[in-house]
Amino acid sequence: MKNSIDTELTKTLGIQYPIIGAPMFLVSYEALTIAVSEAGGLGMFPLPNYRTTDDLEAALKNIRNATGKPIGVNIHLSGKFPWQDQLALCLEYGVKFFITSLGDPSLIIDAVHKKSGLVYADVVSAKHGIRARDRGVDGLVAVAAGAGGHGGTIPTIVLVPHLKELTGLPVVAAGGISTGAQLAASLCLGACGAVTGTRFLATEEAGISDAYKQAVVDTGPEGIISTDRLTGNRACWIASSVEGVEAGPDIGSRKWKDLWSAGQSVAQTNRICTAEEVVREMVTDCSKTLELTFQNACGGTD
Questions:
Q1: Residues 6+ apart with CB under 8 A from 205
Q2: What is the spatial distance between Cα 122 and Cα 159, in angstroms, rounded to a whole number?
Q3: I want to staple 106 with a disulfide (CB 3.0 to 4.6 A). Which of 39, 135, 138, 169 is the partner?
Q4: Is 127 helix (H, G, I), strand (E, B) or coil?
């Protein structure tokens, strides 16, 4: 396996590979975050996974004690969570990479930059990308069609180069990226890295039930549905977990715990393994794909 795959993202974050473990709600806790970072990628978790600052501080301590590698967090700026306190704790514990969702990223940029950190924003369209750029973000996460959880409607192959051309910012691809070939394709589109979520659902470190993990393995891409009727915003789910479920008073507490979110890259998720194995396989296959692409472009080898 290659010692590194160098991109703008890996150089600025000090990581080996341009693979970000998606910060998945009720999935990405300390174990998965640590495992992805230790494997050479960037482990991440969403701050809403920890409902109190005491819980968050305990998690940050656990991670710091387990790895000296960089990690990142997804911070929700909607006002539903105590993001100011969460941000202060993360900066205190040395977090350098933040992905913002559901709010104005400029709220945290000055504080993060003072600590030499980076702020990227989740976006699903050119309008959102331009708005985030104008608010001063360092880069964008292009959440494309087929991504697990909330995502957009534009395919990765279109959204990534479109955002890069319009904004001039570094762009991380998200949506349908679970293999090394898909990572290589994202880099060829101009992405500086990729967020992988669905493939990490079926890992030993994912904080979900064995039944959920097996459903990810057993489901094909045609078994993923995209609907806004459960959360009010379009999201992708494993169809079998939401059959017969109607939006109602109880759906708020159930929608992410009992209903299983996943992306279309279940197509490439065929077994449960460790997060380290996922990273290793992606890196090996990405390197082979890029080498083959170069050889073909040069007319082959003797």
A1: 31, 32, 34, 35, 274, 275
A2: 12
A3: 135
A4: helix
For range 252-259, the mean pLDDT? 63
pLDDT digits (tens, 9 = 90+) for 208-229: 999 999 999 999 999 999 988 7
Residue 136 CA to chain centroid, in angstroms? 21
For residue 255, pLDDT over 90 is answered with no
For the chain, what is the radius of gyration of the CA atoms? Answer: 18
Q: What is the helix (H) or strand (E) element at residue 56, kind and residue range? A: helix 53-66
Domains and CATH numbers, the chain: 8-210 (3.20.20.70)
Can you tell me which residue has the tokens 């472009």?
297
Which of 251, 234, 271, 270 minimizes the C-alpha distance to 242? 251
- Residue 139: which H helix or E strand, with range? strand 139-143
76 in Cβ contact with 103 (< 8 Å): yes
Query: What long-range pairs does 120-126 form, CB within 8 A, spacing at least 24?
Result: 120/170, 120/172, 122/74, 122/174, 123/163, 124/151, 124/152, 124/153, 124/154, 124/159, 125/152, 125/154, 126/162, 126/163, 126/166
Given a contact cutoff of 8 angstroms between Cβ atoms, the answer to whether 135 and 109 are in contact is yes
Query: What's the pLDDT tens digit per position in 66-100?
Result: 999 999 999 999 888 999 999 999 999 999 999 99
> Taking the model in full, what pTM does it have?
0.94
Neighbour-count burial for 22-45, b at 16+ CB within 10 Å, e otherwise: bbbbebbbbbbbbbbbbbbbbbbb
User: Which residue in 60, 19, 25 sits closest to 261, CA to CA?
Assistant: 25
Q: What whole-number distance in Å separates Cα of residue 17 and Cα of residue 226?
A: 30
Cα end-to-end distance, the chain, whole Å: 24
List, in sequence order, every beta strand (DSSP E) within 23-105. 43-46, 71-76, 97-101
Q: Contact 13/97 with Cβ under 8 angstroms?
A: yes
Crossing angle, helix 83-92 and helix 106-114, to 10 degrees? 20
Q: Which of 187, 161, 197, 143 is nearest to 6 (CA)?
A: 187
